[in-house]
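Appendix B. One record, verbatim.
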Amino acid sequence: VAERTFRHLKNKEVAQRNLRGRIGLVKVHVIAVKQAKLELRQMVDEARLHEQLNNVAKADPKRLKELEAEIRAADKQKDKDCKGMDKDERLRLEMRQAFDIFDMDASGEIDQLEFGQLLRGGALIAIPRDQMDDVYHQ
């Protein structure tokens, strides 16, 4: 009876380890699918934006130049506003702006998908895709 109980417990332990491994693989797959969907959505959005810009440029080149001038003026104003700040305030503002670029869902946090997007383009460090989860959790 003891031997049969021991074998049963050992088989149960092996099955649990196997199941945990499979659950881990499913989680990794789910994250990879979410990342792929996010990348695809971004590519589609970029293509639409590019197409719209081309249409605006063709339809009304004067309006496009006006918009570009507005953007340049806003950038100049932002630079002017920063000149009155001390170094720490300016650095905080720049860091907040950089953070906002990568916080795609405006949650106030960089989640695992956004972290993957941040690193995948080599914007900070080139990390293999299979190591991103470990780096994120560390």
